[in-house]
């Protein structure tokens, strides 16, 4: 497992170096004042003003800092040292105080060894679940850092999307297993925001919607809602069409499949 995580960390170190230069992330727009958050998480999580927020798997910190701009005191966590260094540099560039936004380098499953305290909100989003080797431990970490009465929220690419290999204008082909507890070795020189990667090997884990929800319940959280949407935050398939709201959908008339999942839960007071 250490080898899997080390391989993934090398991959994400390279991505953290590459992604700030891509059009996908539009760092220039962010520095000018734009938010990197989607409307979904802002609406479903609600106001964060005056609250403490822990952002798990924060990459190089744009979403974390966007929450800080909305009034939260934020802590971003990522296992990539390059990502954490870049996040701190970006924080300083946009003029957010280090006391309002701090960044911690740690594997999320080992975070209790690297960070103290409890938070009003624990947040994570988009493309994080399948990098986790132990979904039960993940849920325990969330419970550990939530203060009683606190809120956990995730907006995520729906696990069903990982089972789809290709689409055309009329159908989606389900080729990969939805139910699988084993690590999958992936070889790809491309990322969702750019290509030309040297660290092409990654290890990923599939977790079903049921497994995610059950892990949160077993950790002691109370589920407020589970929502599914026929839209995606990026162009996963070439047949998707981008709407004016920034979401990608199949053309009207195509079969709709769940492509985004959101869950909100509360720690018992």
Topology, pairings included?
Elements: H1 2-18, H2 27-31, H3 39-45, E1 52-56, H4 62-69, E2 73-78, H5 81-94, E3 101-105, E4 119-125, H6 135-145, E5 146-157, E6 164-167, E7 172-174, E8 183-187, E9 190-191, E10 194-195, E11 201-205, H7 209-218, E12 221-229, E13 241-242, E14 248-249, E15 260-267
Parallel strand pairs: 1-2, 1-4, 2-3, 4-5
Antiparallel strand pairs: 5-15, 6-7, 8-11, 9-10, 12-15, 13-14
Task: Describe the structure using short key phrases.
29% strand, alpha/beta, 269 residues, seven-stranded mixed beta sheet, Rossmann fold, two-stranded antiparallel sheet
Summarize this structure briefly.
The protein is built from seven helices and 15 strands. The chain has 269 residues and is of the alpha/beta class.
Could you say which overall geometry the principal axes of the C-alpha atoms support?
globular
- Give the strand order, joined by hyphens, for the main sheet: 3-2-1-4-5-15-12
Taking pLDDT < 50 over at least 5 consecutive residues as the criterion, the unreliable ranges are none
- CATH C-level label: Alpha Beta
How many angstroms does the end-to-end distance come to? 35 Å
CATH architecture: 3-Layer(aba) Sandwich
Total DSSP E strands: 15
The CATH H-level superfamily is: Vaccinia Virus protein VP39
Computed over alpha carbons, the radius of gyration is: 18 Å
Secondary structure category:
alpha/beta
How much helicity do the residues have? 25-40%
Element-level helix/strand string: HHHEHEHEEHEEEEEEEHEEEE
Profile the largest sheet: 7 strands, mixed
Strand content: 25-35%
Number of domains: 1
Number of helices: 7
